[in-house]
Please model this.
Amino acid sequence: MKPPRGLTALVLAGTRPGGDSLAQHAGVSHKALIEVGGRTMIERVVAALAAVSELGRIVIAIDRPEVLSGLPGLAAPACPKPVSFMPAAASPSASVAAALEREGTPLLVTTADHALLAPGWLREFLEACPAEADVAVALARKDAVLACAPGTKRTFLRFADGEFSGCNLFCFQSPAALGMVRLWRELEAHRKSPLRMMLQLGIGTALRYRFGTLRLQDALSRLESLSGAKVRIVELADGRAAIDVDKPADLELVRVLAASS
Model:
C-alpha cells in the first residue's frame, strides 16, 4: 500500500494501574523515561516517527503528560512534526480504542518502549501494508530475531509454519478495525486466565495452537471471524524490530544493540 500523507501515529506510553516494575527498577516514574544511548525511550521513538515523511503528526497516550515536559526530543527543532497528548486508558487496547474514536483511521500504533525503532522499519511496514487490510500487524520470524540477539528470551508465537514475535507496530486502516480492537479488549481482560482466553478464541483453535498444528493463516481467519475485520501480517526482515523493553535483561540488550548501531 502506498502510505497516505499526513498519517497520524499513536505512541502508547501509559503505565498500568499499580505502576511499572521496570520503571521502578530504573528509578523513573514511567518506562518511557528510561534512557537508552543518552536519550529517553520516548524521545527515540518520536525521532524515528518524525523521520518518516508519510507521518504528519504524533499523539502520545500517557496518564501524566507533565512527566514528559522539557524533553527536547519532543519539540522543535529536534522534532519537526507536531506532538500532542491524550489520556492513557486503563489498558493498551482501551487507549487504542479511544484514539481511534478521536483520530479516526488510518492510525499507526507503536509503543514507547520500542527503543530501537528505526525509520526504515516504519517505511518497510507502511509500504507493505495490504490495501485490503482493516488491520495490519508487523511480525518478525524467530530466526531473524535470534540472528540479531542470540540467546534472547522473547515470547514467540508458535505456528505450524513458523515461529514469530510481535514488533509493536500496527496500522488500523479502516473503521472496521474497531472490531479487532473490541476483540483485543476482551482478550486483554482475560490475560490472567488462559482458560477464558481459550474459550474466547475457541477450544479447537486453542488446542491446535497448543499442539503446534495451527497455521498462521488459520489463526488469522479465526480472528477475522470473531472480529469482522480483515487482518494481514507484514513480516519485517530485521529481527531487532521485535525487541522491546519489558524486563531488565531487555533493557541491557537494547542498550548494547543501540550502542552498536
